[in-house]
Electron transfer flavoprotein beta subunit lysine methyltransferase
Amino acid sequence: MAITLNCELNQLKPVPILTKNILDLEQDKWDLIVLGDMFYDEDLADSLHRWLKDCFWTHKTRVLIGDPGRPQFRGHSIQHQLHKVVEYSLPEPTRQENNGLTTSAVWDFQP
């Protein structure tokens, strides 16, 4: 909903938003994939990593990943293929809800 509203407010053509599991489907060609806080489970992280590599190498898709640095993300092999774009401080209420996580970063995936 936020993306749709942002597009409307900025007079942009709405971007496609997918809510189904697309990791096992044939890949469409996208210029950009943006995902956030998705590396919380090892099996999901491994599947995402494979899928993102395929998108990158098959279609030259740019991939941006937002993550607050959960242990599953920090310890995943994808770390060797990421370049930090920006880091943000989390607001205090968010810090309290997230067991001491204090920042979140956006990473550019470059396998």
Observations:
- The radius of gyration is 15 Å.
- The mean pLDDT is 88.
- DSSP finds four helices and four strands in the chain.
